[in-house]
Amino acid sequence: MKNPLKNLGIRAQLMAGVLASFLLSLTIIVCLTTLLSRVMRQTGNAFQTNADLDIFLNNIENTERAMETYMSYRTFESIDKYYHFEAAAESGAERMNDKPSVLEVKQKEYVIKMLSLSFFDLSNKAIAARRANNTYDADLYYYKALDCYSFLRDEISSLNMLFFNMNASNYTESKARAESVISRAVLCLIIIFVCFALLMYINIVGITRPLSEISNVALKIAGRDFDVPLFKSQEKNEIGNICRAFDSMIISIKEYIGAIWEKALKENELREKEIEMRALYTDARLKALQDQIHPHFLFNTLNTGAQLAMIEGADKTCYFLEQVADFLRYNIQHPGSDATIGEELGMLDNYLYIMKTRFGERYQFVKDIDESCLGVKIPNTILQPLVENCIKHGLKDATENGKISIKVARAQRVITIEISDNGKGFAPEIKKEIMKQAAAGSEGVLISDKGHVSSGLINVISRLQIYFKDNNVFDIQDNPGGGTKFRIRIEDGNV
């Protein structure tokens, strides 16, 4: 048998088979589900009208019994039952037809509804007269209610029989119709399944036979056995394309393998050189940013001045020159390297002494140091430029009560260094531009409408970002008490 899908590609053949199978299965499931659901629904609802009518009759009977009990004994329980069953019966009566009709069933429902309303009215009047001790009216309405109840029961029984005959006839017809449809559907499904299975078998065999041959050749090539016959296929579908591609691949595969290996080696060598150059560039940039202070001549001159001051007995001048010399010695001994927080704070103490000597009581320096953080490594000459920035810019116009706070703290696995002042602070656009230039590695100065900001702050931010490989290590914030706060945040992975 010729495969009708032979001229289609493999993808089209597979998709056609899968789609046909899916649609057939879906059709079968929908048909069977619909038929079974309809049969079960019709069977279950066949006598529902009889069941509903029985419930209504039961509520009418309970209402009548409760009325009789109250008329005889006047108990609270009986009147409570009466109103309960009357409400249920009225609800059932509301669902019946409320207009005359030529249809027998609808007309019966209308008669029953009218009789029900009359019964409820008469029984209510009888109970009301009984409660008012009006014996005459109570007996009159009571017996009228009983007569109405008798007629009502007869009509309900008659309607119940009508419903029963109709439902029995409908049930028999529905069952016979469903059995006939199911039998035909099952026969059709069997025929469709057989035809589909035969068609799919032919289609699958036509696809898998050449694929099996290609698989055998591929296994030989994977085992480095290139001595295999060419396919020389004339097919115009994907199988033919694969066969022709295999023929070309077998002919030139050795050439390709050599070229690929050579290219891979060259690319790997270039990649390693690129990584090495990036590392050298980063290291050179870090050292270039750090290597800005080399005051050898000035350091030696200050030492000579300190010795002369000591000889002449100028102890204060001698101590001042020694602090300046220590400050410069720190920068000479740590060119382009890192230092501990403790070493940075020691150098900062020298700088603060120099500033106190220079400005007197103009500035107040407050320190809050967690000693467990002193051994942590950071780039050298980081804290002094931040304090200097506070003095030169934040507290530039302050003549008294200038305050600079230095705080080092640890919270869990995060170390925070904060340097703040109570000066005039930064404009938002200046802070944004500082962080932008630091991220770009700029080494120029930042010009503002009130002068310029030294490149030292941008230098500090850039060196911290390079050292910790984290662009969020430094932040400029507004100090709650006014002024500016520089915040360095060192996370656990960078400690």
What does this protein look like?
The protein has helices spanning 10-45, 48-73, 76-94, 104-131, 135-222, 238-290, 296-312, 315-333, 341-359, 383-394, 428-440, 455-468, and strands at 338-340, 363-369, 377-379, 402-411, 414-421, 446-448, 451-453, 474-478, 484-490. With 495 residues, the protein is an alpha+beta fold. The strands form three sheets. Strands 2-4-5-9-8 form a five-stranded mixed β-sheet. It has a two-stranded antiparallel ribbon with strand order 1-3.
Structural class: alpha+beta
Shape type: flat
Helix content: 55-70%
Low-confidence stretches: 447-452
- Record field, number of beta strands: 9
Main β-sheet, in a few words?
5 strands, mixed
Radius of gyration: 51 Å
The helix count comes to 12
Strand order of the largest sheet: 2-4-5-9-8
Task: Give the end-to-end Cα distance, rounded to a whole number of Å.
Answer: 77 Å
Order of helices and strands: HHHHHHHHEHEEHEEHEEHEE
Beta content comes to 5-15%
Instruction: Output mean pLDDT.
Output: 79
Describe the structure concisely for a colleague:
A 5-stranded mixed sheet has the order 2-4-5-9-8. Strands 1-3 form a two-stranded antiparallel sheet. The protein has 495 residues and is an alpha+beta fold.
